Each structure stands twice: as C-alpha cells, then as structure tokens.
C-alpha cells in the first residue's frame, strides 16, 4: 500500500527560528499578543498565514456510556484577555454544548511559518 502514511516516519523539518527569548515578557498574554501581531504582519508580508485568528479548540464530550473523550476543531478567536478567550459560535453547536457540560477546554494557536504556537488551557 502506498500512501502519505508511508512517508510519516521519514519526514523531518529542522526548526531554526530559535527558542523563547530570555527577554520575553513575564505576562504570557503580552507574549501571545506580540506573536499574534507578528502573525498578522507575516500574513501581510508573505501571505502564508491564511488566518492568524484560526485556533484549534479542544473540548471534552461524553460518550453514551459517560466516558470522556476529547474533540478538536478549528474555530476563530475573536478576543483574548485576562478573563479568557472569546470564540463566536452557535450556542446549540456541539462545542457550545460540550463546554456547558464540561467547562474545560484547550486552545492551540498555531503559526507554522513563524515556527510558533501558543497553548491555552482552562
């Protein structure tokens, strides 16, 4: 069988953008804001970040037998501050119902061309 899965083990990219600088702000929201600004600038200059506000939202759903299972999907971030993240969604969507039932989630803001990502949990 030949497929993309045959290539997985051999794929490797050297990440050369560097590590988190010692001069990074102590407040993680400041760093996230700076990186988000960088992502918007990168979109304008290179066009390789389609939507800097696209985030992966992971929630917890309960199976029919009550067992928890993670669910992830891409949504758009509309606000972020010390009170939390703002996501626009239908209040009757699976993600909204899952958050109402189990108010715990994780967000991942991936900016691959910048070799950066931010993870938020709560």
Automatic annotation (TrEMBL):
**Pyridoxamine 5'-phosphate oxidase N-terminal domain spans which residues?**
49-122
Which residues belong to the signal peptide in this entry? Answer: none
Keywords, ordered alphabetically? Flavoprotein, FMN, Oxidoreductase
Q: Which domain of life is it from?
A: Bacteria
Tagged with keyword Flavoprotein? yes
For this protein, what is any one GO molecular function term? pyridoxamine phosphate oxidase activity
Q: Which Pfam families match?
A: PNPOx_N (PF01243)
Concerning SUPFAM superfamilies, the annotation shows: FMN-binding split barrel
| One GO process term, biological-process aspect | pyridoxine biosynthetic process
Give the required cofactors. FMN
InterPro entries tied to this protein: Pyridox_Oxase (IPR000659), Pyridox_Oxase_N (IPR011576), Split_barrel_FMN-bd (IPR012349)
Official protein name in the record:
Pyridoxamine 5'-phosphate oxidase family protein
């Amino acid at each position: 069988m030949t497929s993309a899965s045959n290539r997985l083990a051999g794929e490797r990219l050297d990440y050369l953008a560097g590590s988190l600088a010692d001069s990074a702000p102590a407040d993680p929201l400041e760093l996230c804001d700076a990186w988000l600004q960088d992502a918007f600038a990168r979109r304008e200059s290179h066009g390789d970040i389609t939507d800097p506000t696209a985030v992966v939202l992971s929630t917890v759903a309960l199976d029919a037998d009550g067992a928890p299972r993670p669910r992830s999907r891409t949504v758009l971030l509309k606000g972020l501050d010390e009170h939390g993240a703002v996501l626009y969604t239908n209040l009757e969507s699976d993600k909204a119902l899952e958050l109402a039932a189990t108010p715990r989630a994780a967000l991942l803001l991936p900016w691959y061309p910048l070799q950066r990502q931010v993870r938020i949990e709560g």
